[in-house]
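Retro notes (design track)

What went well: tokenization of the new backbones is finally stable.
What didn't: we kept losing track of which sequence belonged to which structure.
Fix going forward: every design gets posted as structure first, then sequence, in one message. First example under the new rule, 245 residues:
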């Protein structure tokens, strides 16, 4: 079948330009760059094998993989699903390629969309998220460069109490700010998420999740994320919330 001729961009709506031009382009290069990153991540192992002839036993490799799978496997499923609504298509590719998603890319994306007054999950929100994450990557690299050169000694010179506070509470504070930002716009959904997270954490502390492999903290995330999605869908179907709540 002959490929349908595209209309000039000026004759198309912004939604059509987004779907027909922007998204396919992002998928094309997002997949390529992320697959390249996957290949490069095996570089050190390949050097050990090809240059030094070091190859761990198959049992050790399998055992290590099973250990990682038990501890982090759930996050491989939960994180892309839970982050995608905020990050958008291109933001998801960029965030998982650059790292620091929860403590930097996600807050940057959310703050950019909030500042631009665009709705999350829309084409406009996706584009603004892309700009916000791109900016955070450049700023992050710059700050890391400066930090490696000079700020490490400054941090080490801080009182131990301040160091402990930054290490223990910085990331939770960022998540708290994000929760407050979205909770303001979706209070009923935020109440559901907070309640489910509280109950799941309580069950974790009481040892009810000990039957799950690895560190069962991931069960709390699964319950909070997917539980909130299911309850919110039920509330929407029964008219308890609307799409703008």
């Amino acid at each position: 079948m002959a490929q349908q001729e595209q209309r000039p961009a000026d004759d198309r709506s912004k939604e059509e330009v987004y779907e027909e031009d922007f998204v396919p382009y992002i998928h094309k290069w997002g997949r390529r760059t992320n697959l390249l990153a996957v290949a490069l991540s095996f570089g050190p192992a390949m050097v050990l094998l090809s240059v030094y002839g070091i190859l761990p036993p198959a049992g050790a490799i399998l055992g290590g993989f099973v250990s990682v799978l038990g501890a982090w496997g759930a996050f491989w499923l939960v994180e892309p699903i839970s982050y995608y609504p905020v990050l958008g298509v291109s933001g998801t590719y960029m965030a998982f390629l650059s790292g620091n998603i929860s403590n930097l890319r996600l807050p940057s994306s959310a703050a950019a969309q909030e500042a631009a007054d665009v709705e999350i999950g829309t084409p406009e929100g996706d584009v603004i998220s892309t700009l916000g994450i791109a900016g955070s990557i450049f700023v992050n690299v710059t700050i890391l460069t400066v930090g490696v050169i000079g700020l490490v000694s400054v941090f080490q010179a801080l009182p131990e109490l301040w160091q402990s506070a930054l290490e223990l509470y910085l990331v939770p504070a960022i998540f708290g700010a994000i929760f407050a930002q979205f909770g303001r716009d979706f209070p009923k959904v935020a109440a559901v998420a907070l309640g489910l997270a509280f109950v799941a954490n309580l069950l974790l502390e009481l040892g009810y999740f000990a039957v799950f492999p690895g560190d069962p903290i991931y069960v709390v995330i699964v319950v909070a994320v997917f539980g909130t999605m299911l309850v919110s869908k039920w509330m929407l179907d029964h008219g308890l919330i609307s799409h703008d709540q």
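Added context from the reviewer: The chain is about 80% helix and 0% strand.
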